[in-house]
Amino acid sequence: MGEEFSRPRGWTRRRALRLPVLGLPMVGLPILGLTSATTALSTDAIAAPSLAPFAGPPPGSVVIRMRERKLYLVLDGGQAIRYPVAVARPDKQWHGTVHIDGKYIEPAWMPPPDVKRDNPRLPDYIAGGAPDNPMGARALTLSGDLYAIHGTTRRMRRSIGSYASYGCIRMLNEDIIDLYQRVRVGTPVTVVP
Fold first, then answer.
1. What residue spans define the domains of the chain?
2. Residue 122 above 50 pLDDT?
């Protein structure tokens, strides 16, 4: 297990992540429309995954670079698959090394208390597979019981490449499906600024 990651003040451990109903932080839900924080995209933000040179962590590791808004799955031979992602808003960012501790297909979602407080019109529960479920097609929960790497809704695709979430890493559904097939429970995930 990696070193403990730093958490923003006010976050507590949530056991709900180990259940099929995930209570993960999220922002800009389709029910409320996108916030201004989710709309600032670079022109290449929603580029397809690509191979990139990559040195450092061992093959099979995942590295997320917040400033780049990219997730890298490290391969053999000094290469990595580079995926565009949405990352945490500046006031919700964290970094450190964790590991994947759960894999879920179309998980249900319950907004955590601070998301519900900030977005009171959100329902208390969104069924897995529902078109407005912010978890999307797949979710990879991370140790620490706070965050996940997950898909998105059709309306939230525009957030990819931005600083948009309460701490989760958001991917296009087609990209999280690909990543889901390539990683296992226990895969190390390193998040850097």
1. 15-192
2. yes
Kindly state the average pLDDT of the residues 17-30.
Answer: 42
Query: According to the model, what pLDDT value does residue 24 have?
Result: 54
Q: Please give the Cα distance from 49 to 43 (Å, whole number).
A: 15
pLDDT in tens, 151-162: 999 999 999 999
Domain 15-192 is found in CATH 2.40.440.10: yes
Q: Residue 127 corresponds to which tokens in the numbers above?
A: 């069924």
Catalytic residue from among 14, 70, 150, 170 = 150
Tell me the C-alpha distance between 88 and 164, whole Å. 6
Question: Given 168, 171, 179, 189, which residue is catalytic?
Answer: 168
Which segments of the chain does DSSP mark as H helices, in order?
36-39, 113-118, 173-182
Burial of 60 from C-beta contacts in 10 A (0-12 / 13-18 / 19+): middle
pTM score over 0.85: no
* Whole-number Å distance between alpha carbons of 150 and 107: 10
Q: Is 95 a catalytic residue?
A: no
Our answer to whether residue 126 is catalytic in this structure is no
Query: How many C-beta atoms lie closer than 10 Å to residue 178's C-beta?
Result: 16
In whole numbers, what is the pLDDT of the chain averaged over residues? 82
